[in-house]
Amino acid sequence: MNNYFSIIIGTCALLAAIGAQAADVTIMQKDKSFVVNGKQVEKLTIKKGDTVHFKNQDPFFHNIFSLSELKTFDLGSYPAGESRSVTYTKAGKAEIECAIHPQMYLELEVK
Ligand SMILES: [Cu+2]
Question: How far is the CA of 58 from the centre of ligand 1 (A)?
Fold first, then answer.
């Protein structure tokens, strides 16, 4: 009986550990720049499995795309208040850009 409970507890601990690894990272699009925790950023490091949410906080449209080999995507253009998300499942480096504002540029490192 003890072993049975050990297996259950062990499985729960393992699931909790897997769940804790993947996080949600919110990047604001504000004043035509990328902002994390109130600070303008041009570089950001996240963990493998993390989901990045790009939230438009400007009163105009933003776009999000990346041509990086790590993960190529174009999440389209979207208005104020909306957000788009992307999950990184592999480690590496990616460049994130906005097709509407060429000055918006973010170097993402996935560890
Ligand atoms: Cu933009």
Answer: 9
Cβ atoms 77, 63 nearer than 8 A: yes
pLDDT tens, position by position, 24-50: 999 999 999 999 999 999 999 999 999
What's the domain range around 104?
Answer: 23-110
Task: Name the strand (E) or helix (H) holding 85.
Answer: strand 83-87
Q: Is 106 exposed, middle or buried (0-12, 13-18, 19+ CB in 10 A)?
A: buried
Model confidence at 8: pLDDT above 80: no
48 CA from centroid of ligand 1 (Å): 25
Q: Which residues contact 33 (CB under 8 A, 6 or more apart)?
A: 40, 103, 104
Is residue 11 pLDDT above 60, yes or no? no
Q: Report if residue 3 sits inside a domain.
A: no
